[in-house]
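Researcher: Hi, I'm a grad student and pretty new to this. My advisor asked me to get structures for two proteins we've been looking at. I'm not sure of the right format, so I'll just paste the first sequence and hope you can take it from there.
Model: That works fine. Here's the first sequence with its C-alpha cells right after it:
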Amino acid sequence: MKETKQIIVKIEEPFITLGQLLKKCDLVSTGGEAKFFLSSHDIQVNGEEENRRGKKCYEGDRILIDGQEYLISK
C-alpha cells in the first residue's frame, strides 16, 4: 500500500471553509467547481464524511480527500 504524506495547510483566520481549503490546495479554482468536487469525491473531516463547502475547519482538524490527508495549522 502506498503511503501518502500529510500536507500541512496554514491558516491565519480562526477557521477555513472546506470550499476555501479546496481552492487553497489548488484542487479547484471556483466555488462552483468546489460544489461539484465535493459531490464527486470521498472527503472526510475528522473521520466524518463531509460534502458541504461551507463546513468550517479549525486548527488541528484532519481532512482526508481521496486518501490524501490535510492538517489545518496556524
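Researcher: Oh nice, that was easy. Here's the second one.
Model: And its structure:
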Amino acid sequence: MVRVSGVDIPDGKRVDVALCRIYGVGSTVAQDILRRADIDGDPKPKVMELSDEQIDRIREIVDRDFVVEGDLRREVTMNIRRLIEIGSFRGLRHRRGLPLRGQRTRTNARTRKGPRRTVAGRGRRTGAKK
C-alpha cells in the first residue's frame, strides 16, 4: 500500500478514486492532483501501476498545495468553535445540535437531532371532552 499524507491508499483502485480516501480530497481535487502530476490516460492507471517517481510527485503536490487530513480537521473544528464563542446564530445551532442552514425541524432533522425522545403529556388524550 502507498502512503500519502498519513493515509494508506489501496493498490487495486484507480488513482483518482484511491486519492479520495484522503480527508479533504474529493473527485475534483483528485483530478487536479493527477493533472499537475502529469498522470494521464483515458482509463486512469491503478495505484499499483504507478512508478515511484509518480507517487513521489503526488505526495509532493498534496503536501505542498492542499490542506488535508489533520490540518483540515483542525481548521474546521476551530471555525465551528469560533462561531460558538462569538454567539452567532450558526454557533447556537451547533451548540444545540440542530440544523444550521434553515431546514425545518418540526418534521425531519432526525439525523441532527438524534433518535426520538418521548415527552410526557404530548399527543392526544383519550376520553377528554371539549
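Researcher: Is there anything I should tell my advisor about the second?
Model: You could mention this: The chain has six helices and two strands.
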